[in-house]
Amino acid sequence: MKNLFAIIALIFSLSAFSQSEVKITPKKCMPKKGYHLRLEKVFDDSRCPEGVSCVWAGEVSAIIRVYKDRKFMESKTLKFNPKNTAENINWFSNYYSKKIKSVAVFPYPKNGVTVKAKKKFIGITFEN
Fold first, then answer.
1. Interior/surface letters 107-126, b for 16+ CB within 10 angstroms, e for the rest
2. Which pLDDT tens digit goes with each residue over 41-54?
């Protein structure tokens, strides 16, 4: 039984470390050196909520502010939808050295549930 538990724990720990993720949030604290991306605003969220049948998947837009060494560099508005996933990954790749697997806006909408702006974030998952 102890061996089974050890094997399960080992598998879980390997899978947990095989992917890393970054969250881009509205929080304003930033490092003194290097690039920092901050989520300014999420808007035009027309994604199909969980539990609802929709004709199309929808999209969501977000404004991201880019800082380098705490100095503002640019503000970029991105649309997140199935058609421009590669374009968004390419843009984010300018600021991360690891290969990006996916980029998405969270949380995904649920029917009848409103999420406060400060709870929304962009999640970037990296390949290892």
1. eebeeeeeeeeeebbbebee
2. 999 999 999 989 99
